[in-house]
């Protein structure tokens, strides 16, 4: 019997070595870098950096939630204000449909006319004679 060498057994039963390429690298060890053993100081420093990073992450998260809560609060106030304004316009429309003009509507019309009033028209151009 012949001693077996490393390699594959071919069809004829003979041991054949797989072809190797010049560019193939030898298998590297998986894991830590050779020649450097982690010390307790490195582990403690790494742990402290991790804790500091976690503290900073929690602080950023807290600030983000505070900002979002303030944003929601301001938007809710705007929604309530717009709802009140809508209710006011609905009341005005209802009152006008009933045939009376509310005092606050008259005031708003008067204020808007005074703030952006167009140049006055001459009396002759206001009414055209249709006869």
How would you describe the overall organization of this protein?
The chain is mainly alpha-helical. Helices cover 58% and strands 3% of the residues. Strands 1-2 form a two-stranded antiparallel ribbon. Strand 1 (8-9) and strand 2 form a beta hairpin. The radius of gyration is 44 Å and the shape is rod-shaped.
Helix content: 55-70%
Sketch the topology as an H/E string, one letter per element: EEHHH
Spans with pLDDT under 50 lasting ≥5 residues?
A: none
> Helical element count?
3
What percentage of amino acids are in beta strands? Answer: under 5%
Indicate the mean pLDDT.
78
**Spatial gap, N to C terminus:** 134 Å
How are the strands of the biggest sheet laid out side by side?
Answer: 1-2
């Amino acid at each position: 019997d012949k001693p077996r060498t490393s390699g594959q057994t071919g069809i004829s039963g003979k041991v054949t070595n797989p072809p190797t390429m010049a560019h193939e690298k030898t298998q590297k060890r998986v894991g830590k870098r050779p020649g450097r053993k982690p010390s307790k100081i490195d582990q403690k420093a790494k742990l402290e950096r991790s804790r500091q990073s976690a503290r900073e992450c929690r602080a950023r998260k807290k600030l983000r939630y505070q900002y979002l809560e303030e944003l929601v609060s301001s938007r809710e106030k705007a929604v309530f204000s717009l709802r009140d304004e809508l209710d006011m316009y609905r009341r005005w429309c209802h009152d006008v449909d009933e045939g009376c003009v509310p005092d606050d509507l008259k005031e708003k019309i008067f204020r808007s006319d005074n703030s952006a009033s167009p140049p006055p028209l001459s009396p002759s151009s206001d009414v055209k004679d249709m006869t």
